[in-house]
Specification:
This protein has 248 residues and is of the alpha/beta class. The protein has 11 helices and 10 strands. The two termini are 14 Å apart.
Length: 248
């Protein structure tokens, strides 16, 4: 996607991959390669957060960085996952509350962007340990053992359930009950119809997968590389060409 935008916009740049085995070396690697910008993937997002010179406000709360940008003499960290997610759910109207399934890094980004936009957000996870971060940050949290069924406008799956298997992220009957009273469903997994999405279809629930989130976070990150000087719609047009091709 990035190289499609670079080539079609006639930009003097190249976007490529670099294998990093030790997350502690991320900033050292960034500087040694004389980069102006980089995207960071799992499992190095927390390292990037800790080692960059500074972060923007929401990223500081999330505690994970997926985009590094050289700004003057500093390496600044951003999290475009959060804003990419929120951009992707704009077609969903009148959302007052949401339930996030899972408590990993993606769940953190989504929780904080929902909270920033005044959407009451709860986190449901199998185990309690990962919920500690969310509880300290003021979110309502539950484990599978103490969860009380309720009504949520939006249900979001951030777990890997369904990525490489046919598992649901939650007990089937409970999830069906939740979907029966929900307005929308969202699965961060893209490129396949997961059991979560299949259940949403069965319940005639409007849904989205993670493809738009992927596209929008990439657009936002790309524009950060260019100090937000480019037109978002133009980037989207060029990235979408490669995005569509890569889907087949």
């Amino acid at each position: 996607m990035h190289n499609s935008a670079i080539n079609n916009l006639n930009l003097n740049a190249c976007y490529t991959r670099t294998l990093l085995k030790d997350g502690n070396e991320i900033i050292k690697k960034f500087k040694s390669m004389k980069l102006d910008g980089a995207n960071v993937t799992v499992p190095h997002k927390e390292y990037a957060f800790k080692l960059c010179d500074k972060t923007e406000n929401l990223t500081s709360k999330i505690g994970a960085v997926n985009t590094l940008v050289k700004e003057d003499d500093e390496i600044v960290g951003y999290n475009t996952d959060a804003f990419g997610f929120f951009e992707s759910i704009k077609p969903f109207k009148d959302i007052e509350n949401a339930l996030i399934l899972g408590a990993g890094g993606t769940a953190k980004a989504i929780a904080f962007i929902l909270n920033k936009n005044s959407i009451n957000t709860s986190i449901l996870n199998r185990s309690a340990k990962r919920l500690e971060f969310f509880a300290k940050s003021g979110f309502k949290t539950s484990t599978w053992d103490n969860f009380k069924d309720a009504k949520y406008d939006l249900i979001i799956n951030t777990t890997p359930a369904g990525l490489k298997d046919e598992n649901l992220p939650l007990d089937a009957q409970l999830l069906k009950s939740l979907m029966n009273r929900s307005k929308y469903a969202f699965d961060v997994i893209y490129g396949k119809t997961t059991p979560f999405i299949k259940l949403a279809k069965i319940n005639s629930l409007p849904y989205k997968d993670g493809s738009d989130m992927l596209l929008f976070q990439a657009i936002l990150a790309f524009n950060l590389f260019y100090k937000n000087r480019l037109e978002t719609q133009i980037i989207k047009k060029e990235m979408k060409k490669a995005f569509v091709l890569s889907s087949f």
